[in-house]
Amino acid sequence: MLLQLSPYFKNEGSALDNLKNVLDAVSHRDFDYVVEFRHRSWLDESKKELDSATLEALKERNVANVLIDGPGLHLGTKPTADHSYLRFHGRNYDIWYRDEKEDDHRLDRYDYLSREIS
Q1: How far apart are the C-alpha atoms of 64 and 47, rounded to whole Å?
Q2: 56-73 tens-digit pLDDT
Q3: DSSP at 63
Q4: CB 16 within 8 Å of CB 46
Q5: What share of residues in the chain are helix, strand, coil (percent, to 5)?
Q6: Which of these, 9, 21, 71, 85, could form a disulfide with 93 (CB 3.0-4.6 Å)?
Q7: 23 is a domain residue
């Protein structure tokens, strides 16, 4: 089961406790859980791994951190569970980070390798 957190859900105040409460409320025997953190405040000082308190919370519950392969996003290397989940977001940096328009090219973002935009 994928728990994709809002990009506005920051690691501040009681956020980690709230996340722990959610994870404690689900059955870890019936499903493998993974969490996708979408705000950089969950990362450690290196900005390459989740902070230690978050890693520990996931490990204690056998919940995996979603590993993300994409432009400007962390990948992470520290296992937190006996299962994993990898998202291939594509590497079209220019498409991901240019100004959005109503007829944007979101689908092109998932073309894995870079290509020129005409």
Answers
A1: 18
A2: 999 999 999 998 876 665
A3: -
A4: no
A5: 30, 15, 60
A6: 71
A7: yes
